[in-house]
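Usage

Read records sequentially. Each one opens with the input sequence:
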Amino acid sequence: MSYSEDDFVPISALQHLLFCPRQCALIHNEQSWLENQLTAEGRVLHRNAEKGKSTTRDGIRITRDLPLHSFEWGLIGKADIVEFHPPAGLTKTAARRTLKQRIDQHRETSLADWTIIPIEYKRGQPKKDDSDRVQLCAQALCLEEMLHLTIVQGYLFYGQKQHRHEVAFDPELRAITADTISRMHQLMESGETPRAEYQPKCNNCSLYDLCLPKTFQMNSARAWLDRQL
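and closes with the structure output:
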């Protein structure tokens, strides 16, 4: 299946869906957003990771804020950092020339023997669920389509730990990611907002005062506002 650009969904929405389908619908179907300390800290961390120019260090091209897309998966977004590691024996000058031909000028210069590593920055520490890993894997799926190669791993960098955590893009994670992408498209196409279901994690959600999970059982925040008005 191939999606049109009008049907693309944000890569970041996959994490929202796995955290809470209602939160995801409020943000991406109802265009609702509130910020709290946690989201502000995350925004600052991403801004710091993405700022600055792309650089080359020891032959490794470090690209920041790289736009991503996939027609196969119907995704669009950006990668905080993508590292391009050249194959052994390729000189630094040749490595820079190959990347310039393939990325800047969109020529069909193969990068199949390169090692491509996406890196996503997150505040806090590793989560118990798959949300961060799925978001990173979705970035890899986009890069694979864009660069015509296979990516085997990436990294999640957590601000609280100040440490990279390796993520292997194995068949299990790819299957979870594919299922999440499918569910995300279904949610967007439906235009519906799931009912509120309170859980302890709701207390840290920036949309808590809009969602009102302990008391608000209507499907749509917009419907509640209409009722009040």
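Summary fields computed downstream for this record:
- Residues 60 and 85 are 5 Å apart (CA to CA).
- Residues 35-42, 104-108 have pLDDT under 50 and may be disordered.
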